[in-house]
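Two proteins follow. First one:
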Amino acid sequence: MEGIAVSTAMFLLKGIPEGFLVAWGMHILTNTPVRRKPYLMLSLLYIVITYLIRFLPITLGINTVLSLFVMIFSYQIVYHANLSKMIRAMIAAIIILVMTAASEILNVLLLTLVYGSEQANQLVTSSNQFSQAIYTMPSTVFLGLITLAGYFIMKAINKGKQANGKNSETTGE
């Protein structure tokens, strides 16, 4: 069994940006402030290890599960999180996995709507790696938009919690 090949174009155009988005999503969903050095360390650990996983002799899907564990363990290594933060990190990693799957599905739906199902299938499985990377890039854009929406949702939730907390302090309830 061979590894799951990743072209240089796919790694540069899709893998790296997606890795940074996944790390940003972890920060958002765990309410961890983004600081440059830990964010870069988390992102780069995830990007490099996920890339290396693709060379293992495993089937498609197993690499996704392994990448999920990589994100959780990378988060623990970078942030030395306590148990409650680690549980949040596990939940966040699963949510990000679902968000990534949703963005891939949206990409396929978009390509199918624009080109038809047969042509869309040919585009995402093209032997031209650069072309394949270009046509699968919308999934990264969709992931970015979903992550951005998550940022604003979490910001509103946290703002609501702070407002409720301040009200409780002033009223004593």
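Second one, unrelated to the first:
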Amino acid sequence: MAFFDQYASRLNEAAISHLSDGLCTFHPGEDGRPDVLDVPYQFDNAFEVFDEQGLSMHVKTVLLPVDRVGDVDRKATVTINGKVWRYSSLIEDDGYFVRIGVTT
């Protein structure tokens, strides 16, 4: 199992570095945790989510690698090209990547 995990980790790292939109700074929002610099990210300006009633809406999201940012707190922010985006909701977390809804 460790053999497969090693290759899956390398594949995830290659995918995020080649498919990312650039590098951002992640601010955890928790006391004592330092900012994480140069985190590869993917920004989606119109990601579709569904509420409990099945209605869809478009939200802005940022996809981040979990191994770089760890647990994402509700007080977290992300700085992309000098613009600060605040955490608004957790969209998905598969253990390797976390997608969070963001607002300005």
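SUMMARY FIELD: The longest strand covers residues 36-50. The mean pLDDT is 89.
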